[in-house]
Amino acid sequence: LPGVLPEEPKILQESNLAMSADKESIPVLCMACDGPSCNFRGVQLARRNIGKNDIEIAMKYCGVCHSDLSIAAGHLEGFAGKVEYKCVPGHELAGVCTRVGEAVTKVKVGDHVGVGCMVDSCGKCKSCRSGNENKCMYQVQTYQGKDLNGRAAVWPPKSRTLGGYTDVMVVHENFAINIPKHFPLEAAGPVMCAGVTMYDPMLQHGVKAGDKVGIVGLGGLGNLGTKIARALGCEVSVISRSHGKDDLAFAAGASNVIASTSEEDMAKHAGSLDIIINTVPVYHDYNAYMPLLNRASRIGKQVLLGLHEGIGAGFILNAVTFGCSRITSSGIGGIPATQAVIDLCAKHDIRPDLEIVGASKLNSVYQQLDDSNDSGKRFVIDISTIKEGLVCDDPAPRLKDYKGMTIRSIVGEFAKNFVTLRWR
Question: Fewest beta carbons within 10 Å, which of 115, 140, 172, 292?
Fold first, then answer.
């Protein structure tokens, strides 16, 4: 799977470390945690200085994603390896370009720019050449990544990448996203994560105007995905446990709300959907939604997005059935898709429902994400509030016990679905 690599992969490409200034690193302020308790505080760390193909971003905002919690808390260690602390999460970055390397052509000083979930890939494989850098085996994550290709150098060397809870970001220009200046910076970060995560499976599966899209869950992902699907001309049905979020769903553009616990609702809408995009972040009975799919549809798939065993099982099912499985999975999108969804949202003024918070509220935000984000909003940090030595207003979040997925549990989930023919 992308991002799961040997501990010491070899550098694949020519380094980008020809510095355009006279020192190798620059000091940056970050909100970091020292362990899986996710107790954040303001610290000074360091990044590489800009290289010839890099840009420097004065950060203004960074969104907080549920996967930030999953990674920082070590919930994915059985699958993706040990977390290196201090951990600085954040892959929903938005700010203003302040410096560029001498070879940069894509971005100029003063441009509004962002960074999503990746800061590098090999640039040579089939996936990279087709604009699907997210599928590259040598993809480098925005935080907790290793410099696998020589263009995502870290400081000190051999440490891990630092994410967007920071006042300054340095990134190779190929992984910078241009943000139209009329689109609010505070809204841009979540679009480069939640937005492209919802948009890419629609793109990959050929969703078009008139298609009937089901979205399971109405948290930050589902809320924004409903708006995007509606802008593409689709009829959207939100699938939730009850009708308690009907007003939120209809405000986002849904035509229907299906209560999954209602036998009447499930029977009424059986066979009605061309595609289901399942945003639930924790393991659950996703097979319960399969009867809602139209088996005669040219798509007819449920796409799992949550970081649990189902996403890995869906990946394997799709591979071993040569794309015939009706259960599949998706992660983030490539750079072209990320740019496309930012442009789409700017064109249609699609904005996530969000709450801007000071950095001292991070512990509280993590607690709300762990409890279940029923509001449908994305939390966005005002980066100007980060100070060295800053302590959060609330104690460390009391996170639920989480078993975490492992390679073994993913294979077990695949086998269960494959043997019982649930994928058909």
Answer: 292
Here the tokens at position 291 are 């009867």
Report how far residue 282's alpha carbon sits from residue 423's, in angstroms, rounded to the nearest whole number.
Answer: 20
**Beta carbons of 246 and 222 less than 8 angstroms apart:** no
Is the predicted pLDDT of residue 151 greater than 70, yes or no? yes
CB of 407 closer than 8 Å to CB of 76: no
The pair of three-digit structure tokens given for residue 383, joined into one six-digit string: 């980066």
Is the CA virtual torsion 258, 259, 265, 266 positive or negative? positive
Which tens digits make up the pLDDT trace of 303-357?
Answer: 999 988 999 999 999 999 999 999 999 989 999 999 999 999 999 999 999 999 9
Cα separation of 2 and 17, whole Å?
Answer: 25
Q: pLDDT band for position 74 (50/70/90)?
A: very high
Which residue stretches of 18-144 are H helix?
Answer: 66-72, 77-80, 126-129
pTM over 0.85, yes/no: yes
Q: Is beta strand 93-100 parallel, antiparallel or unpaired with respect to 301-304?
A: unpaired
Q: Where are the alpha helices (DSSP H) in 9-97?
A: 66-72, 77-80
Q: What percent of the chain has pLDDT over 70?
A: 94
Can you tell me the distance from the alpha carbon of 179 to that of 115, in angstroms, rounded to the nearest whole number? 10
Residue 63: partners with Cβ closer than 8 Å, 6 or more residues away = 90, 92, 164, 189, 190, 193, 194, 354, 378, 379, 380, 381
Structure tokens at 79: 């699958």
d(CA 358, CA 383): 8
DSSP, residue by residue, 329-391: E-----HHHHHHHHHHHHHHT----EEEE-GGGHHHHHHHHHH--TT-PEEEEEGGG--TT-B
For the segment 356-411, what is each residue's pLDDT rounded down to a tens digit?
A: 999 999 999 999 999 876 677 899 999 999 999 999 999 999 998 877 788 889 99
